[in-house]
Design a protein that fits this description.
With about 230 residues, this protein is of the alpha/beta class. It has a single domain, classed as Rossmann fold. It has helices at about 5-10, 20-35, 55-60, 70-80, 95, 120-130, 150-165, 165-180, 180-190, 195-205, and strands at about 45, 65-70, 90, 105-110, 130-145, 210, 225-230. Strands 3-2-1-4-5-7-6 form a 7-stranded mixed β-sheet, with helices on both faces. The chain is globular and about 45 Å long. About 40% of the residues are buried. It binds S-adenosylmethionine. S-adenosylmethionine (SAM) binds next to helix 1.
Amino acid sequence: MSASDWIEFWDSKHSIYVNARHEAAHFRRIAEDIRPYAPAGGTMLDYGCGAALAADRVAEPVARLILCEPAPNVRGKLGARFAGNPRIAVRKPEDVAVMPAQSMDVIVIHSVTQYLSPRETDALLKMFRRLLKPGGLLVIGDVIPRKTSAIADARALLRFGRKEGFFVGALRGLVRTYFSDYWRLRKSLGLARYDEAEIVARLEAAGFLAERARSNIGHNDRRMTFLGRAR
Ligand SMILES: C[S@@+](CC[C@H](N)C(=O)[O-])C[C@H]1O[C@@H](n2cnc3c(N)ncnc32)[C@H](O)[C@@H]1O
């Protein structure tokens, strides 16, 4: 059965991670890049976390790491994987929406905004502002600038594959992806893109002091990470 929206796609048996080696390297890299933002002894939310295979690394310094994922199969696996880790809680977006105001020190949302409409992103930013303590940090990663092409994404994946030992798998995976639901959805639903000034303006409108981070989280350095401090 083919996916009709992005959540269904991410919940399906897709081949975006071209093999197990890629999937492990991907989540290791994301965890390594997110960990410096983890608040020692504090509460952190990773919204749209995906399989988060290395979330236990991110959880080490914090009191509580909340992994929020809408895709039910992915969430089920997260629950099973981290059942033995008292610092990690797995939640769905509906649960996060009713969490108490000012209960988070840091919120990360990485590689998710491209799958949301601008209106959905604005609503989430407002919710994040409510959940964060004053001075708390919002980290939005993998924002796709308007001018980036799919070719640039493919090149970034091949570079990552060469570095992590899955170059041939990456080549094969790119061909598979081209004929997959991903491309069909990318063409029909599109991916949301923002230039730096646009995302900064949206963050400021939602009550953040915003700036672009020096480097993106993850392997794709054409994409951007933004930091918002709750005013
Ligand atoms: C590219 S994956 C990123 C996963 C993870 N953050 C990472 O960087 O590896 C996109 C994630 O966004 C989630 N997602 C898609 N639409 C969403 C929505 N409307 N609300 C929350 N998460 C969503 C998907 O379920 C999927 O886990």
